[in-house]
Amino acid sequence: MPVSRTFVMVKPDGVRRGLVGAIVGRLEAKGLCLRAMKLVSVSSAMAARHYEEHRGKPYYPELVQFITAGPALAMVWEGREAVAVVRALMGATDPAKAAPGTIRGDWALSITENLVHGSDGEESARREMEIYFSPAELSAGPGSTASA
Ligand code: ATP
Ligand code: MG
């Protein structure tokens, strides 16, 4: 599997609780490479794009309300099998079922306020990166061959 990129977000609960450093530290410690990062206030329009596959679900209004409620940290991480590796580090969607040692397993209990988002495939990773980052932001940074 070649090096791939994934979109990761520390959701508003993680920023509010001061867990940005701890969460970013786990991804760094695993050996993933940080390629883009910014604090964002997720608008209703961005939330609707991000979670479009969940529209109509009973939990959708709460999900959108939560993700737009405060600043979140949007990031792009790169590495071998980055999508699957980040999903494994995050743990199960429901933190009550997430294994100890995972981000959700160690620090969350609410299924809505579950601290992190990670893309669930290569295609969603590409789609989600484009919601939160411009092409210039995605091509910038160390290791890039793009000029400014
Ligand atoms: P995320 O997409 O946020 O990384 P995930 O991929 O683990 O989480 P998804 O199935 O994509 O889980 O669901 C997106 C979000 O919707 C979850 O993080 C969770 O907050 C919420 N959600 C999903 N299923 C439920 C449910 N059954 N009840 C309440 N909230 C849910
Ligand atoms: Mg998901």
Write a structural description.
With 148 residues, the protein is α+β, with helices and mostly antiparallel strands. It has helices at 12-16, 20-30, 44-50, 60-67, 82-90, 103-107, 122-132, 135-139, and strands spanning 3-10, 33-41, 71-80, 116-118. The protein has a domain at 3-37 and 74-137: Alpha-Beta Plaits, CATH 3.30.70. 41% of the residues lie in helices and 20% in strands. The protein has a four-stranded antiparallel sheet, sandwiched between helices. It is globular. It binds adenosine-5'-triphosphate and magnesium ion. Adenosine-5'-triphosphate binds at residues 54, 59, 63, 93, 111-112, 114, 117-118, 120.
Label this structure with key terms:
single chain; 148 residues; alpha+beta; Alpha-Beta Plaits; 4-stranded antiparallel beta sheet; 8 helices; 4 strands; binds adenosine-5'-triphosphate; binds magnesium ion
Instruction: List low-confidence stretches.
Output: none
Ligands: adenosine-5'-triphosphate, magnesium ion
Main sheet: strands, sense, barrel: 4 strands, antiparallel
What is the CA-atom radius of gyration, in angstroms? 15 Å
Q: What is the annotated CATH architecture of the domain at 3-37 and 74-137?
A: 2-Layer Sandwich
Number of strands: 4
What gap, in angstroms, lies between the N and C termini? Answer: 30 Å
Main structural class: alpha+beta
Arithmetic mean of pLDDT: 95
Relative helix content: 40-55%
- CATH fold-level name of the domain at 3-37 and 74-137: Alpha-Beta Plaits
Which homologous superfamily in CATH is the superfamily of the domain at 3-37 and 74-137?
Nucleoside diphosphate kinase-like domain
Strand content: 15-25%
Order of helices and strands: EHHEHHEHHEHH
CATH class of the domain at 3-37 and 74-137: Alpha Beta
Gross morphology: globular
Record the strand order, biggest sheet.
Answer: 2-3-1-4
- Number of contiguous helices: 8
